[in-house]
Amino acid sequence: MSSTTASTPLIFHGTFIHSNNPQEVEIIQNGLLVISPEGKIILLQRNIPRADVQTTLTDIPKIPKIPKLPHLPSLPIRFLKRGEFLIPGFVDTHNHAPQWTQRGTGRGLPIMEWLNTVTFPHEAKFADKAYAHRTYASCVSGFIRQGVTLAAYYGSLHGEATKILAETCLEKGQRALIGKCNMARNAPDFYRDASNAESLAVTQDVIAHVKRLDPAGDIVRPIITPRFAICCDEELLSGIGAIAAQNPDIMIQTHFNETKQEVAFTRELFPQFKNEADLYLHFGLFNSRTIMGHCIFPSDYEIDKLREHDVGVATCPVSTTTVETWGAAPIRKYLDMGIKVGLGTDSGGGYSSSILDASRQAYITSHARQTLTDGKETSLTLNECFYLATLGGARVCCMADKIGSFEVGKDFDALEINALVEGQIAVIEDDDPIGMIFEKFMMTGDDRNIVKVYVRGRSIKS
Ligand code: GUN
Ligand code: FE
């Protein structure tokens, strides 16, 4: 058994809430959940009154296909009380780990100015391994505190620091996709890959290291991470595309149609491509394994391409509404077209490390789009926001077969919520129905209400 899992079976009885699809949130009451020592959900039953829990557990060994387990009825059971419930872990589909400590600074700047004056000087600090160790320890713990059980992380350009990020996630038990940023041009001398060849060699080295750390990819996996086309020339993008083709199991992430300044500059640098979809397609970086960050300004042609190639969208609404020329992604359109969508914090591009905040901002920006489109794009529902934070994010990361909802056979990546812990959450009244308690948590709760965080059955929030 791996040390990254639960080690003893876990048993929960009570309320479990998850998404079955973008529209439908299922509230399971009197649920019974059993998690194997390997961290897999091996039993999920609905409507088991508390008085019947022991009998049900006694009957479990008779259920076929369940591996040999210790005597379940003798194990402790976590009975969730009123106000307490389980939800799937939050997925952060777009996160710049090195920007952890710069969040909130440089608001209102256009993207290139923000990168050159705030972000690149800050990320350059990760040349120092001691700095990387302590900052990534704080970063990963910080996102775990917010209930992020899976993050798609951009590292800095440094190979060694990016390896430290992977080691930190593995040690702390946070599931993560981790990539070294490729950026060999349009960045300052002090923070740029020395050459295209070096950029590719470091990428290969980081991929090999992450695969060595966790060969099965149970917790950490590498992800190919060209920062964006502006920082890469044709030769580098071709090399990155070749790495993607050689490693069909590895995901890809970059920024896509994030700001008008970036779209215009990309056109100027790559006049042979009419748009960013054709550009990334040409280099083999636009497919069902790709996570495209932001996706604010794609044309209808590019949106069709997102769907045609089953590309995932990481929408980061806190980020996209707090830096100049950012905007609001057409999430309604994406969901209606069946395009995969999840939420991202974007770390320093935004200010908040909370997926709850991202979910609320997705709700707010979708309202704005409803007004701006004269009602053509209807605003998101709370159920859809919850889906984006959980199962939608799992789909974007191509892990919906493993995580994102409570199903027998999936891993137990979950948050134990206590809506009664006082903080900023709206007070729970004695006669509040469970649907209202869930709504209050989603709209007003915070990390104080996220009392436990599980990945593969292992409790990781300290
Ligand atoms: N485009 C290129 N790099 C970045 C980054 O670090 N953050 C955001 N939001 N956009 C980018
Ligand atoms: Fe970003």
Q: Can you walk through the features of this model?
A:
The chain is an alpha/beta fold. The chain has two domains: 10-88 and 404-459, Roll (Urease, subunit C, domain 1); 90-396, Metal-dependent hydrolases (TIM Barrel, Alpha-Beta Barrel), CATH 3.20.20.140. It has 14 helices and 17 strands. Strands 6, 7, 8, 9, 10, 11, 12, 13 and 14 form a nine-stranded parallel sheet that branches. Strands 1, 2, 3, 4, 5, 15, 16 and 17 form an eight-stranded mixed sheet that branches. A hairpin with a 5-residue loop joins β2 and β3. The relative contact order is 0.15. Bound molecules: guanine and fe (iii) ion.
Query: Could you name the CATH topology of the largest domain?
Result: TIM Barrel
How many structurally independent domains? 2
What global shape is seen? globular
Ligands in the model, by name, code or SMILES, are:
guanine, fe (iii) ion
CATH level-4 homologous superfamily of the largest domain = Metal-dependent hydrolases
CATH class of the largest domain: Alpha Beta
